[in-house]
Every structure is written in C-alpha cells, then in structure tokens.
Amino acid sequence: MCIIFFKFDPRPASKNAYRLILAANRDELYSRPSKAAEFWGNDNEILSGLDLEEGKVGGSWLGISRRGRLAALTNYMDARVNPDKQGRGFLVPNFLTESMDSCSYLRKVSSESHLYNGFNLLTADFRAREATVCYYGNKGSTEPINLKPAGIYGLSNSLLDTPWKKMLRGKQDFTQTVNKNLPTDSLVHELLHLLSNEELNMPDPVQALQGEGYSGSMLQALSAICVRFPGYGTRTNTVILIDAAGNVTFTERNMVGCDVSQWSTNSFSFKLLD
C-alpha cells in the first residue's frame, strides 16, 4: 500500500511559489530489499529508489529525472492478485528513461494493462513551460486523464481521489500545510510530519468494500496514512518540491533495517535541465 498527495501549477503567480509539491509514503514488507534514492542511468540523470527483490530488480515506485520527468506508482488494493503477472515497478523507470510524452506513455501502458495486476500510475513533465501531469489506473477508465493544475490530488490504493477516510484526512492536512506559504525547509518538515500520522481512520466502509478478503486487523492498519502492521508498513517518506525557477528539492526518509524507531534522511537538490 502507498499514498501520495500532490499539487502542481505550471505557472505559479509568485517566484516563491512551487510548480510541484508532492508528499508520498511507500508501504512495503520491511524485509523486502530495496535501495534508497540515488542518481542512476545515463549521465546520472534519474533520481529514485530501486527495488532489489529477485525478479523485480530495477523497478521503482517514485522517481524524477533532471529533464523534469516524474513518475509515481501505487498498487490497487486487491486480495486476489495473480503472481504470474508482470512487475508493475518497471512502469516507473520505463517512463523516466524514454522520451514519450506523459499521456502518450500512459496510452501505451493502457493497451498493455492486462499484463499487470491492479495499479495506478502518475506521469509528469515539468521541464516544458506548460507542465503536464497525467494519470491512469487499470481498474478505471481505459483512457488516461490529463489533470487540471492548481487542484489538490490524492492517490492511494484505489482510483485517484477515491474518498477513503485516510485520503480525505490527508488531503485536508496537505491543503492546510501548502497554504501556509512556508519556506522550503519548514514545508519539508511539516509534510514529513503529515506522512508520519499513524492515527487510524476507522470505520471506513468504502475502503472495507474494496478490501474484501483482507483481515479486519490488516484493514484497520491500512486505514492510517502511516501504516503500522507486524512486518509491514510505511518504510519510506518522500517529499519533492519544484519551484518556479525549476529548482528541485528531493527529500527521502527511510526506515533503517526493520526498526520503526530508526530512520535516515537524505536530501538532494538540483536544477532541471533546459
């Protein structure tokens, strides 16, 4: 399970405003091997964490390139997954390493959606003056959606903006935070705090309906923005900011080992290529 909150504006009114504010949690088995975010690819152009699970090495859940291409993936909550389907994590690096525009890439993915278990995929391009963010979920419409700027969006393990209680709570807190017009360091700090909220949002009949087949205790754990369950939960927080001048701040906070009390934070700053 994962959750993402974001707001984008291709042409912010103020030079101190942001073209993108994104806050995301990655939820996974604590024991699943993965690599913390670092630059990789041709000319170290791409910044992302990477999956190291056997058979899925090189997949990712969230990444951005120096060219301003961004992709983010969440799985669709479904107790009946097919283990023989292709790895969804490759959808992120595949977009980051090629030149196809955001929505065209998602149309291509849509034509092959039967090859994967349920997923949601965001693709974006922030280098161009007219930034674009597109969304596709293979459990929803067959056509990708070109998202309208300046709105607050939330994506978890259902379709975009599905009104799970934790999604509604998170969007409310995210909106309040981004409307404070905080300096970068303070904004990152508050978004990381938002992503660490372990409060349960129960009962949630909308989430429970989709989660048929999950245990009651698991559904309860999954109702929090920051998930805590034995051996499974939120193990990575990521905040990505892109300002009006194309400066990127990428902050990643990772659980150390399998200890929920031990965390390591790394930050990266760079300017998008012209």
Automatic annotation (TrEMBL):
InterPro entries tied to this protein:
TANGO2
Record GO biological process: Golgi organization; protein secretion
Can you supply one Gene Ontology CC term for this chain's record? Golgi apparatus
Q: What is this protein called?
A: Transport and Golgi organization protein 2 homolog
- Biological source species: Conger conger (Conger eel)
- Lineage summary: Eukaryota, Metazoa, Chordata, Craniata, Vertebrata
